[in-house]
Each structure stands twice: as C-alpha cells, then as structure tokens.
Design a protein that fits this description.
The chain has helices at about 5-40, 45-55, 55-85, 90-105, 110-120, 120-125, 130-165, 175-195, 205-225. By secondary structure, the chain is mainly α. The chain has one domain (about 5-230). Helix 1 (about 5-40) runs antiparallel to helix 9 (about 205-225), helix 3 runs antiparallel to helix 4 and helix 8 (about 175-195) runs antiparallel to helix 9. It is elongated, with a radius of gyration of 20 Å. The two termini are about 25 Å apart.
C-alpha cells in the first residue's frame, strides 16, 4: 500500500472512530434516559402502567442500546486499523476484547423478553403479581450480570487501545494516560458489581471519568484524524 493510500485509510478510520465514540455515548445514555423517563417512579403496578403507555418509546430505547453494541464492532475495527502500526499484536488483542463486549449485547433479548412478560396480556393474565415480579427480578439479575461481564471485556479492550494511543502522537499523552486510568476504573466497578450487586447504584459515578475520556477522544479523532508517522516516533 502506498504512503498516500495508507494515510487516507488511516485518516478515514480515525474519523470514523471519533464519530462512533460520540455516537455510542448518545445511544447508550439516550437509551437509558428514555427508559428512566418512560418507567418513572412508583410501585410495580404504576411503573408497569407507565411502560405500557409509553411502549413504543421504551422499545426505541432498547433498540438504541442494542445498536450501541452493534456500533462497538465498527469502533473496535476502526481503532485497530488506526493503532496496529504501533503494535499489531496488542491492537488485535484489544480488538478481540471489544468484540467480546459487543457480543454481550446479544443478551438484549433478555430485556425484550422481560418487556413482553410485563406488557403482553397472555403473560400478565396467566401469572399473578408475585410470580410476574419474581420472573422480572430474575431477568433483571441476568441482564445486570451480563452487562457487567461485558464491561470487563470493555475495560481490557479500552485500556489496551489507550495504551497504544500513549505510544503515538495521535492524542495528547495526558488524555491517553487518563483513558487508561478511567478504563481500569470500569474494571473495578464491574467486578465489584458482580461480587456485591447491592453497590451497583452507588458505583455509577465511576462512569464519569471514562465518559470524559471518550468524549475528548472522539472529538479529537473526528476533528484531527490520525496521519501515519514513522515507527521510530512511537514510544515503546
């Protein structure tokens, strides 16, 4: 591949990665906001009534979060293309970890199944409230566990990609180092949630550093891209 062609490919994939970084945050956070907005507060019956009343919006929110998993594949491959010149073996390993995270999105069917249990008459009429709530609690526990398992894969992949960014001039070194730190925090959060699920709500603040890191990374890659540089400029 010629230097000009390589430069064009790397620039294109860097900007794709930057755009997808930002898109994933919009999809994930937007989906969660809509879910919370539709569900509202109150007792089990009240929240169920809210969901039924806003069912199309609730389904749209679930689709948004599923699409976040789909676009994670594009992000992972784009980052691999951009960073493989720094260390192809580490870049490939990071790609595999992020793909593992993305495949975890396939468990979205559990959330859709829980929604069907809660809203479709053939289920609500054949189960009493106690049975229905027990099944929904089980579905929630499965979804919570699969989400945090996915975050473990995310944390390894994100840490490795930021480690490669630290070797390159594509991002400020301070941002790359902060990205490594923020990614490692998500690992601690996910493992803690798996061991002590009751701490889940209190640990949500741990998301803030990685959101800051990914928003800054997304903006810089989208605006500046990444031009190929001689291997001698990489920090080992």
């Amino acid at each position: 591949m010629s230097t000009t062609s390589e430069s064009s490919v790397q620039m294109r994939y860097a900007r794709i990665a930057g755009f997808v970084y930002l898109l994933l945050i919009v999809l994930f956070m937007g989906g969660q906001f809509l879910i919370d907005h539709v569900t509202g507060s109150g007792a089990f019956a009240e929240r169920t009534a809210h969901i039924i009343a806003g069912l199309p919006l609730y389904r749209a929110a679930l689709v948004m979060q599923f699409l976040a998993s789909v676009f994670t594949v594009l992000l992972a491959y784009s980052l691999y293309v951009v960073l493989k010149s720094a260390d192809e073996h580490i870049a490939r390993l990071a790609l595999y970890f992020r793909l593992g995270e993305a495949f975890g999105g396939l468990t979205t069917f559990v959330t859709f199944a829980a929604l069907a249990l809660r809203t479709e008459p053939k289920f609500t009429q054949s189960l009493d409230t106690g049975q229905l709530k027990a099944l929904l609690d089980l579905a929630h526990a499965a979804d919570f566990a699969s989400f945090n398992i996915g975050i473990v894969f995310f944390s390894f992949g994100s840490t490795l990609f930021y480690r490669l960014f630290l070797r390159t001039p594509y991002l400020p070194r301070a941002l790359s180092a902060f990205g490594i730190f923020a990614s490692a925090l998500t690992f601690v959060m996910a493992v803690t949630c798996l061991v002590m699920p009751a701490w889940g709500d209190a640990l949500q603040v741990v998301w803030i550093p990685i959101f800051i890191a990914e928003i800054a990374t997304g903006i810089l890659l989208l605006v500046r891209g990444a031009r190929p540089v001689p291997a001698t400029t990489f920090v080992r």
